[in-house]
Amino acid sequence: MAPVPDDDAARREPSTGQGSDRDTGGAVLDGQGSLAPAAQPGSLSPTAADGIGWVTLVTTVAAAGALLVAMSSGYAAALGVTLVLALALAAGWPLLTGSRTPAATSAVLAVSAVAIVLSAVRRDLQWVPAAVAFGIVLSFLTQLGRRAGREGLVLTLLSSFGGLVVMASGATAVVAVDDAHGRAVAVVAMAAVAAGVAGDLFAGARALARWLGVIALGAGMLVAVLAASRTGQVGTLQALGIGAAAGAGSWAFRRIFSLEPAMLTARGQVAAATGSVLAVGAVVCLFSLLT
Hints:
Elements (H helix, E strand, L loop, with lengths): L7 H4 L9 H4 L2 E3 L5 E3 L8 H4 L4 H20 L1 H23 L4 H17 L8 H17 L9 H22 L5 H16 L2 H4 L10 H20 L4 H21 L9 H13 L2 H10 L1
Antiparallel strand pairs: 1-2
Helix pairs in contact: 4-5, 4-9, 4-13, 5-6, 5-8, 5-13, 6-7, 6-8, 7-8, 8-14, 9-11, 9-12, 9-14, 11-12, 12-13
């Protein structure tokens, strides 16, 4: 009996570039036959990242201004505006931080945002850790239903956890507006955040590339002192500390994500902007307790 010829079609292995989202989690096979992550279109070069993202700048100033007015108005207004900013963050944060399941991560963060911000109804903040823990558990549970394998699982979870931390920071600032001194601290901090945008405005000037952080720091401190003089509740030294932490801190937050491909999209820029404002909440809480 003649030997049966091998079936080449049955033995054929996928060639380079034949990966799919279902079998390799969005990765392709490289020349050695190992998995390599799929290239992300639209990646920013360092030169492109130095351009001004006007959506980021406008959103940052608008969010800081909204919180400034809300926190000077009272507890309920601060709670409402913080919740709106947290929900805006939930919509774009997974895209900005590279989650492999952006829709599921956004849903987790949106539900967690409501729980975290509303936990600030209790003035001692004892419910905030429980709300964050709820978000962490929810993040793990949503990953159990993934059909694309475990590719990018850690990055997706870190995306969720990072968003939860930023939201929790924003929630801690709400309790600071319960008295006149806390409201003054919040107003000074939000004014410094808006002033820190000066560091972004000069991002396109190569001669000032090394001084962008210093510009954001100086602008934050200057505006903080001016705002403190209007409130009459915060001293000059305290205002300098608040301005330095809030102005430079918010600018650094946005700068961290300047090379992310999502910064080419409006959702990514809004997430970076709202995150840089909410992240300053811990500064407001800390200075309201220590000063």
